[in-house]
């Protein structure tokens, strides 16, 4: 990572000029960047584009839900600012984007995520560890192997494979009849990629096929994100699910897990951390009761706050007076010591904390296997 970014000032201007002028990158610069991307991972490719609009909220977003105190703070900042620049609102949006793509290779996607996290703060650029969705391109011409197609004429057919929790997409364009098979396949895949972005493509698309005839019930390709949202909601509202059972002599067991959970959701989180604590106040099923229940909620929130953008809670199990947490962290972030220190602040019992590198997510996949079998997906 350090080698790539140490050379960024050497190529930045040439890459930006290529985007601004709409011309190819010079052969020397292209080779230079390609060599350094391949040193990161042979499976990675790179491309340039104009920066898509940022999804970050503006300074005034959320006014409808702001508290009275936050509104007062905002008014005070408005009154004390010497200029609009002091407010951190607006400013010049990035115009250039450098994108790495791992395709379906999860190992390369981890490398790309670390590359992005190590990127410098460059106001003129946005850096992507996977191709972002770009639905605006679906109404514009696309040149593919010397053929120009107007993507506004594309329609799709979508079929949800409930057993595999994936989408089978068919893509139709009236000019497909003039293209060879490999070009039709390439255009079809690019359409789905533009609609969803690379990560959702890998998460949810089971197959993509070009269609020789227009679907009987055609949909615009821009409908793909809605179908993905519906599918993820059917599998668990895109958040958490909780299952309960009973164990003889131990009372009830409760497990809460992120579901659905895909490797692409947290590509940099490869350090598994297990935290186990006991609680003293229980109900008749040996589940937490106040004050332990409230203390556990506060403790969980503290651990998640410490992990912040460098980790996530994937699951927790509660049974017989014991709560077990399953976190994954970014091992390169340096957050582990602070996380372990926070974990050991629990006062009702001895705390057990252990960690191990688990880039394949073997531990959480083993925990989730019976749950996925029951829920589907």
Into which percentage range does the β-strand content fall? 15-25%
- Total helical segments: 11
**What's the CATH topology name of the largest domain?**
Alpha-Beta Plaits
CATH architecture of the largest domain: 2-Layer Sandwich
Q: What radius of gyration results from the CA coordinates?
A: 25 Å
Average pLDDT, all residues: 88
Number of strands: 14
Output the structural class: alpha+beta
Question: Can you describe what's shown?
Answer:
Residues 45-65 are annotated as: Disordered. It holds the Pfam family DUF695. InterPro entries: DUF695. Residues 265-366 form the DUF695 domain. With 377 residues, the protein is α+β, with helices and mostly antiparallel strands. It has three domains: 2-54 and 90-128, no CATH class; 135-234, no CATH class; 239-375, Alpha-Beta Plaits (2-Layer Sandwich), CATH 3.30.70.60. It has eleven helices and 14 strands. The chain has helices at 2-6, 8-21, 27-40, 68-80, 106-117, 181-196, 198-204, 224-234, 292-307, 336-343, 362-375; strands at 45-50, 96-101, 125-128, 141-144, 147-150, 155-161, 166-172, 205-211, 239-247, 251-259, 271-278, 311-319, 322-329, 352-357. A six-stranded antiparallel sheet has the order 9-10-12-13-11-14, sandwiched between helices. The chain has a three-stranded mixed sheet with strand order 1-2-3. It has a three-stranded mixed sheet with strand order 6-7-8. Helix 6 (181-196) crosses helix 7 and helix 9 runs antiparallel to helix 10. It is globular and about 70 Å long. The two termini are 35 Å apart.
């Amino acid at each position: 990572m350090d080698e790539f970014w140490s050379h960024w000032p050497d190529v930045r201007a040439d890459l930006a000029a290529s985007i601004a002028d709409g011309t190819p990158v010079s052969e020397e610069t292209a080779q230079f960047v390609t060599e350094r991307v391949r040193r990161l991972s042979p499976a990675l490719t790179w491309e340039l584009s104009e920066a898509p609009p940022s999804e970050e909220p503006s300074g005034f977003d959320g006014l409808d839900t702001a508290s009275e105190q936050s509104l007062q703070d905002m008014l005070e900042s408005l009154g004390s600012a010497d200029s609009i620049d002091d407010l951190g609102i607006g400013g010049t949006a990035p115009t250039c984007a450098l994108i790495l793509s791992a395709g379906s290779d999860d190992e390369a996607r981890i490398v790309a995520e670390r590359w992005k996290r190590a990127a410098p703060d460059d106001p003129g650029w946005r850096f992507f560890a996977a191709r972002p969705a770009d639905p605006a391109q679906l109404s514009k011409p696309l040149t593919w192997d010397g053929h120009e197609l107007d993507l506004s004429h594309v329609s799709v057919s979508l079929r949800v494979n409930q057993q595999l929790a994936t989408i089978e997409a068919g893509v139709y364009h009236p000019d497909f009849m003039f293209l060879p098979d490999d070009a039709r396949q390439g255009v079809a895949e690019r359409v789905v990629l533009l609609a969803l972005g690379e990560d959702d493509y890998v998460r949810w698309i089971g197959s993509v096929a070009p269609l020789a005839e227009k679907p009987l019930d055609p949909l615009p390709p821009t409908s793909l994100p809605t179908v993905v949202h519906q599918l993820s909601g059917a599998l668990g509202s895109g958040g958490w699910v909780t299952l309960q059972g009973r164990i003889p002599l131990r009372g009830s067991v409760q497990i809460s897990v992120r579901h659905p959970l895909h490797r692409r959701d947290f590509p940099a989180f490869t350090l598994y951390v297990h935290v186990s604590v006991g609680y003293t106040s229980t109900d008749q099923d040996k589940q937490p009761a106040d004050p332990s229940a409230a203390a556990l909620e506060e403790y969980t929130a503290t651990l998640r706050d410490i992990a912040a953008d460098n980790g996530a809670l994937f699951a927790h199990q509660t049974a017989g007076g014991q709560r077990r947490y399953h976190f994954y962290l970014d091992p390169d972030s340096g957050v582990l010591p602070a996380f372990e220190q926070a974990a050991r602040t629990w006062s009702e019992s001895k705390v057990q904390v252990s960690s191990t590198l688990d880039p394949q997510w073997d531990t959480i996949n083993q925990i989730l296997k019976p749950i996925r079998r029951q829920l589907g997906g």
